[in-house]
Each structure stands twice: as structure tokens, then as C-alpha cells.
Amino acid sequence: MKSYQKLEKRFGRLLALREAAGVLHWDASTMMPEGGSSAEARSEQLAALGTVCHDILEDSETSDLLDDAEGLNDLNIWQAANLREMRHMWVHATAVTSDLVEALSKASMRCETKWRSARAESDFNGIKPMLAEVLKLVKESAAAKSEALACSPYEALMDEYTPGLRQDIVDPIFSDIEAFLPDFLKAVLDKQAAAPQPIIPKGPFPEAQQRELGHLLMGTLGFDFSQGRLDISLHPFSGGTPDDLRITTRYDEEDFTSGLMGILHETGHALYEKNLPKDWRRQPVGEARGMDVHESQSLLIEMQACRSKEFLTYAAPLMKQAFKRDGPEWQVDNLYQIYTTVEPGLIRVDADEVTYPAHVILRYNIERALIADDMTLADLPDAWNDGMERLLGLTPPDHATGCMQDIHWFDGAWGYFPSYSLGAMTAAQFFDAALEANPDILLAIAQGNFTPLYSWLTENIHSQGSLLETPELIKRATGKELDAGIFKRHLETRYLT
Amino acid sequence: MKSYQKLEKRFGRLLALREAAGVLHWDASTMMPEGGSSAEARSEQLAALGTVCHDILEDSETSDLLDDAEGLNDLNIWQAANLREMRHMWVHATAVTSDLVEALSKASMRCETKWRSARAESDFNGIKPMLAEVLKLVKESAAAKSEALACSPYEALMDEYTPGLRQDIVDPIFSDIEAFLPDFLKAVLDKQAAAPQPIIPKGPFPEAQQRELGHLLMGTLGFDFSQGRLDISLHPFSGGTPDDLRITTRYDEEDFTSGLMGILHETGHALYEKNLPKDWRRQPVGEARGMDVHESQSLLIEMQACRSKEFLTYAAPLMKQAFKRDGPEWQVDNLYQIYTTVEPGLIRVDADEVTYPAHVILRYNIERALIADDMTLADLPDAWNDGMERLLGLTPPDHATGCMQDIHWFDGAWGYFPSYSLGAMTAAQFFDAALEANPDILLAIAQGNFTPLYSWLTENIHSQGSLLETPELIKRATGKELDAGIFKRHLETRYLT
Questions:
Q1: Residue A1 pLDDT greater than 80, yes or no
Q2: In this structure, are residues B193 and B322 in contact, taking their beta carbons and an 8 Å threshold?
Q3: Is A266 a catalytic residue?
Q4: Does domain A160-497 have CATH number 1.10.1370.30?
């Protein structure tokens, strides 16, 4: 057991250092002054942390301890899973050379910085050389990892964000949705067009009132402000640690609706972290399962629970009170109509839950082709525009609202996109199973009581940490493998009945 | 040169990691929620950072590189000084075993936590066993370092905070002040008693107005809010990095005067950091010179510059404006009288500049005796009370306002106190030299122009980083060794003429 205990100590330190990096990221997005060289200093600090973390994994003693511990036969299931997750981290870290990691990190930082100005000018040709450099290094990394993980290069990229995710899981699901979407979308748009339009509440909605309402509803969900914070950042995110949850949002004083839903979305992420198994804190098996499951927890809260008529029944009077307003626009039915409006658009982050998968499938097809050399960067803008036309019937007027809109590719995060839509489908399946296990969940939500829902989530998802691999986690929690049919039924029920 | 370059890279990473720890400390004092286990998680993160920093110094390759680089004869003076500072950090880190470092860190954390409640109850006997454990480990550490540094154990402790500080520097200065103080203090108190009392401005002074005034005057001093922040914490401090200065304060709505001076004090610390040599950023030679010089920069700003009649001439109208007040209490002479009131008291952190050295000398004598085994902890309360009676004519009614008032000993920071008073004397000497070099400095301050003062400080102190050892820095900047006579003359001029 000695080797296993030593690994726990070693990985405990590694994860504490990653937590430190998390605080530095949060600070950079919320508190750090923007002038001078503060960003440069911060990236030096983060690079130093990244190096020492990498060194811990690359140390030959870590490798020896892993080999030795894998020969032990008296580990319990949590310890065995912990060891499996340690090996997974080790494989990702050691499959690539430090030089490649550094080169990719620097190329991504350069490209991302340039992208900010190039996007403003829709200048794809201006960013293409830097993007080509990033893509070249991503492909090198993918090739090296594909060997170590015994999977395709593209799968090796997805595996960083959602361990174990393979194309034979994604392809049939995305094909299914891709076939389903055009007719379904048309039917929803026809139905919406035939109905009276919702009344949009008129601003301004002062930031302080929005924040107060956000705090109130976060509390309803179970967020404890003695163990967490809500701050402002340009791009909302959920950070911090299970004992110190840090979520962020941004406020639009003309429209409170999307900011509020953003807060509830991030609260979903945060409460997943909060409920992870405390006995395995700062151990790989005690961490969240992967980006798809993480996204399932935020989307379950946002899309399944909080855009429901039940939640809006509870929230509508609180909204009126927070903004000191009244009138027909604050009726539950009207608010529900606003929160379930479907409208094809060019921008992924503004998309509703019906059209969102189209955005993801477009990116999935393109990045897979680029990694597999079935396409070159020169073809990217046309491929993007063709795909948008085919999937949503829209043509971007420029690259800023087209293939340059997302930071991911320019920042080196290839293989990330699928987790968004897999998360949405997993959310639908988890929520469906939760309601089956306890039909009172929605009734309780209508009374502002999230305890029944969180009991089920904590028991079946959160408290499991990374004990199970994702397909097994889904199967044990819901009785079946990931099934796009449940997501489709959710859409049909919400948008066509 | 190769060994030297490798050391620069290694220490660059080390100092980046220490900066990361600094961000975590700042966050813990200003932003971190107080509930749950956030503090415990933070100390795990800081412990992990401490361990990897220690590992970098203890690594045998670091030792080999230092040995090799010390044989080079083509280093320039900055490189040679950098190497000297690297060796100094190395000696402190490697003189003690990791086990001792960890034991001391844990004992200090336990003792400090217990001290918070024990102090509230004035319970010296309750804290004594834990304090004894801390003292035992501090003595072990001091003994080990005294050998490596070829100095006395107590000097080895001082050396951590103010490198190179030895008793033959401190003793004559403190003896001089100790002999000077009683008669001087009596004369000042007599003079004050004979004069009309100052009129104290009446509160409340809303926090927002105090903050605005603080921001305004920080800006006057040269603080750039695009590269720094002012926040609230229980114990004010100056943190962050040269590119990202983070100072804190606390506000008392009944009395704005001490909070405002606290902000200016911390601004003095921050602007020292800001003006350190950019070419040596994240190298030991580019760091601040030591705690005594750091304190000289905050005290020069607070005591020498900002409690001057010239500064108050500039600030008085801004105070009136900030608080929307008027009346005789806002006259410069009245404000000057408030800001130069002398009153012997029990609490060091509330002391004026005349009585402050008495507090420090008391602690210096006691901690030196305890480290040298000339005294035991059982004698501490009596030694304290006797010293207070002798130095300031006061007897603490309890230990909370007596020997338990400061966190330092309970937190393991032995040998720190002298730097406060050495800083005050160094500040007087620097300011005196600056005025001699440029007699217009005070005139400019009266117009809210700190540029002449900061030109001198930047050139003679800040831009030097740790190029020179402290005695040499003082000598080059002022033409002579540290001279308590200048501090005494400052007190005589301000308080008796």
C-alpha cells in the first residue's frame, strides 16, 4: 500500500497547486487591474504553476509508484478508481514533451491575443497563419496522445475534457440530432409564429436589483454565501473550490432575463463542485467527472429546472418584487414564453436549447475534418457558411459572426465543443430519471424547494465524483446508456405540446 | 555563464510561485468567504506552494549551480548581487530540515488560532504550552541557521526579515533611543498639556466618502489604479506585485484620521514595490531590500511626508470637500495638532511615532532574552509589565492589552519587531537626505506634487532593489551609516519647537 499512499500525497499536492491556479484565474477575470503588465505577470505565475504540476507527473518516481500501485490487489473500489484517474492524468502529461506543451501554450496565447483584434475586423486571413501554427501543434499533441491512449487523434483531444469520450459514442447521437432538427425546428417556428408574441419587460433593471434577485434565487437553489461568492466578469464562469465557490456573471440593464439564467446556470456548476465526495477532496477520484457531466449539471439547472413553468411560478413574484414592477409581462405564462423562445441565430452563446446542437455539430464536423487532414484552414470559412446554411438556414454576413466567433480554436481548445451538447442530452436524461424516481420534484421546485432534486443529484451524480467512468455513471443513474431520444422527447414536450 | 543563466531561470520560477502565494494571501484577507472549510483549503494550497518552493532551493542541482556560478569571474555587479541574494535564500532554506519547517509551520498555525480566543480571554496560561512549542521550534531553527550564517541565533532570526541585520547595529541605536526617550517624552507631554487641545472632527464619516478621499490622495502620491487596487481587510497590508499593487485598509466611520493615514502608509509600501528595477523582475536582486527598508518607505510617506504641515495644507481642503464639512476643526494647524498628538498607550499598533520605539525596544529585549535562554516564558508577563512601567509609565490591566497583544510571537515571527523602529529611523535619515538634495520637496508636497520626493526615492532607494546590502544602501543614499541622531532631531523639531 505504501506506493499508493505516496501517490495520494503526491496527487494531493498537485491538485492543491491546480486549485491555486484556479484562484489566480478567478482573480484575473474579476479583480485584477487591467493596466500595465499585470496580465503578463499573471501568465508568468500560471506558467510556473503549470511547470511544477507537469514536473510532478513527469517525475520518474511518479511513474514507478504508478507501476507499483497497479500491482496491488488490496485497493478498495475508490482507491482503484483513484489510481485509474491518476494514470489518466499521467498519460496525458507524459505523452507529449515539455517542449511541445510550452510551444502550444505560447502559440495559443499569441493567437488568442491576435484573435481579439482580428475578430473585431473579421480578418480571417490575418489570423490564419497563427491559427495554422496552433492547429499544427494541436495535431502533434493529438498524434502523440492517440498512441498513448489507443484512440484516434481527435478522440485524444476530446479525452482531455471528457475522459473516455470516443467517436462511436458521439457520431450516432449527433447524426440522430442532425436528422431530427430541420423538421422539428420548422414545426416549432411555425407554432411560435401562429401564437401571440410575448410581452418583453422594459428596462432599465438596475444592476443592484439584478444582483439581489440573483443572490436570492441562488440561495433558493442551495448556494451558501458563507462558502462562495458572485462577482462580475466579461465571460461568466464557475470557479473556486468545493469549499469556496466563485461564480461570475455580467449584467445587462436593459434585459435581466439572460443574465439571471446565466447565474442559475453557473450555480448548477457550483453546486456540483460543492457536493463532490469530501473524503476524496484533492484526489483525482474526488474531482468532477468531466466537462460533459459538468455541463449536464449546469444545463439541468438552467434548461430543465429553471426554464420550467414550475420554477417560473415560484420566481415570477420575486422578479416583480426585486424590480418593483407589475403588469401582464410578469405573468408566468408570458415569462415562460420568453424563456422558451426559439430563434435561429448566428451566435452559439446566444442560442436557445433547440438550435444549440446545430452550432455544436457544425463545429464538431469541422474540427474533426481539420484534425484528420480531410480539410485545410483555407476551406474553413466556406465550410462554416455552408454548414450554417444547411443546419439553420442562415448565412453569416462576416467571419466575426461566422467562423471567428468562438475563442476555442484560437486558444488551442480543440475537441471541447461536443461536451456542450452531450451535456445537454445527459441533463435531459438525468432530469427524466430524477422525475421518475421522485415525481414530486417539480412540485417542490414550484414552491422554491430544490431539496428533492438535489437529493437525487447528490446521491446519483455528485457524491460519485470520478468513481465511475461517464458511460457507467449515466447507466447506473438512469438505467440506460446515453440516449438522444430523451432529449428529443424533452424538446417535443416543451416546444410542440 | 551557463550555470548563472540556469539559476536565473530557476529563481525566476521560484519567485513567480511566491507571487502566486501572495495573490492567495491577498484573496484570503479580502475576498475569501469565511464559512466552511475555505481557510483550511487555502492553507493546503499555500502549503503545497511552500513545499514546491522549498524543493526548488533544496534540489541538489541548485546547490551545484550556485557553487559553479560563484566561481565565475565575468558576472556584472547586478548579476553578482543576484547570486549573493540567491545564496542567501538558499542558506535560509537549507539550514533547516523540511521536517522542522513543517513542524514550525503547523505549531505556529495551531498556536495562532488558539491565540485568537485566548487573547480575548487574556488567558496567558491557556496559550503558554502552545507558545512554548513554537518557541522551542523557533530556537531549533535559529540554532541551525546561526551556524550556517555565522551569527548568533537571535541574529539568524532577524536575518530572515532584514538580511544582514546584527546586534552590533541594533544595540547601540536602541540604547541611544532608550536613554533619550524618558526625558524627551516628558517634555513633549508637558508642552502638549500647556497648549489648547485640538478640536476633533465629529463623525460619522461614511465609508464611501473615506474611500473616495483615500483614492484621491493615493493618486496624488502616484498610485495608478489601472495597476492596483484598494480593498478592505481586518489587518491593513500591502500585497500584490510591482505591476499589480494591492493595498488594504479598514474604515472607522467615527474617525477618519487614522484610516486615512493607514492608506497613505500602505501606499508608501506599494510605491516602493512599483519602482523596483524592472529589468530584474522576479529575480532576488530585483526584490525589495528587506523589512526595515520596506518599513522606511511606508513610514517616510506616513510620518515624514504626510503628517507634515505641508501635506496637511494640501489635504485639508480635500478633506472638507470629501466630507462636505467646514469649521475650525478643518484648519491646517488643528489637523496638524491631531496628527502629531503624543500619548503613551498600551497598544503598539495605536502608538504615535514618539512612543512607538518604546514598544519595539520592550519586545526586542524580551525576545532576545527568550531566544538566548536568559528568561523563560513563565517570566514573560512580569517582564512585559515591568518594561511597560519603566519605558512608558503604564501597567497593562490584563494580558490582552499586555504581552498577548501582538500576533508575531504566537505566529512564529520572532526577530521581526526591530525592523519597525529601524525603519522609522531609516525613514528620517532618507527624508533628511532627500530634503538636503532638493530643498523644494516639501514645497511641492504642499501643492500635492510628490514627483520631486519620488524622483529622489526612486533613484536612491527603489531602483536599487537588492543590489546593495542595507548598510551600504543607506550610506550611499545619505552619506553616512544609520544614525539615530537624525531621528531624534526630527522628533525634537516636530514636537518641541
A1: no
A2: no
A3: yes
A4: yes
Condensed to tens digits (0 to 9), the pLDDT of residues B383-412 reads 999 999 999 999 999 999 999 999 999 999
Q: Which residues of A touch B43 (CB under 8 A)?
A: none
Nearest CA among B292, B296, B287, B244 for reference residue B268: B296
Model pLDDT, residue A379: 96
* Mean pLDDT for the stretch of residues B27-56: 91
* Architecture of the domain defined by B157-497: Orthogonal Bundle (1.10)
Confidence at A34, pLDDT banded by 50, 70, 90: confident
| A434: confidence class by pLDDT, cuts 50, 70, 90 | very high
For residue B1, pLDDT over 80 is answered with no
Q: Are A224 and B36 in contact (CB < 8 Å)? A: yes
Give the gap in angstroms from C-alpha B135 to the nearest C-alpha of chain A: 28
Q: CA-to-CA distance for B264 and A399, rounded, in angstroms? A: 50
Distance in Å, alpha carbon of B168 to nearest chain A alpha carbon: 39
Exposed, middle or buried by CB within 10 Å (0-12, 13-18, 19+), for A1?
exposed
pLDDT single digits (tens) A352-401: 999 999 999 999 999 999 999 999 999 999 999 999 999 999 999 999 99
Give me the mean pLDDT over the A437-466 stretch.
98
Chain B CB contacts of A41 below 8 Å? 19, 241-244, 281
Mutate to test the interface with A, among B15, B26, B38 (most CBs of A within 10 A): B38
Q: What burial class does residue A194 get, using C-beta atoms within 10 Å of its C-beta: 0-12 exposed, 13-18 middle, 19+ buried? A: exposed
In this structure, are residues B465 and B285 in contact, taking their beta carbons and an 8 Å threshold? yes
* Helix (H/G/I), strand (E/B), else coil: A36: coil
- Amino acid residing at A321: Q
Which of B8, B10, B23 to mutate to probe the A interface, most A CBs <10 Å? Answer: B23
The residue-averaged pLDDT of B368-387 equals: 97
**B377: distance to nearest CA of chain A, Å?**
37
- Reported as half-sphere exposure (CB side, CA atoms, 13 A), residue A363 has a value of 26
The single residue of A8, A266, A302, A469 carrying the catalytic annotation is A266
**Does the distance separating the beta carbons of B33 and A228 come in below 8 Å?**
yes
pLDDT digits (tens, 9 = 90+) for A291-300: 999 999 999 9
Mean pLDDT over B336-351 rounds to 96
- Read off the pLDDT of residues A2-12 as tens digits, 9 standing for 90 and up: 999 999 999 99
- C-alpha–C-alpha distance, residues A224 and A475, integer Å: 31
Count Cα neighbours of B71 within 13 Å in the Cβ-side half-sphere. 7
Closest-CA distance of chain A to residue B405, Å: 28
Q: Do A27 and B27 touch (CB under 8 A)?
A: yes
Write the CB contacts of A143 (distance below 8 Å, at least 6 apart in sequence): A153
Do residue B35 and residue A282 have CB atoms under 8 angstroms apart? no
Minimal C-alpha gap between B241 and chain A (Å): 8
Residues of B in contact with A53 (CB under 8 A): none
Which residues from A are below 8 Å from B279, CB to CB?
A: none
pTM for the model stands at 0.94
Give the residue numbers in B contacting A (CB under 8 Å), as ranges.
Answer: 12-13, 16-17, 19-21, 23-24, 27, 31-38, 40-42, 44-49, 51-52, 224-229, 241-244, 281-282
The strand ranges marked E within A182-237 are 228-232
Could you give the C-alpha distances from A226 to A166, A229, A244, A245, B36, in angstroms and in order? Answer: 40, 8, 9, 10, 7
Give the model's pLDDT for residue B456.
98
Q: Which of B155, B160, B266, B273 is catalytic?
A: B266
Q: What is the pLDDT of residues B76-103, one digit of tens each?
A: 999 999 999 999 999 999 999 988 988 8
Question: Which residue bears the cell 493529438?
Answer: A142
Extents of the domains making up chain B: 2-156, 157-497
Would the pLDDT of A37 be above 90?
Answer: no
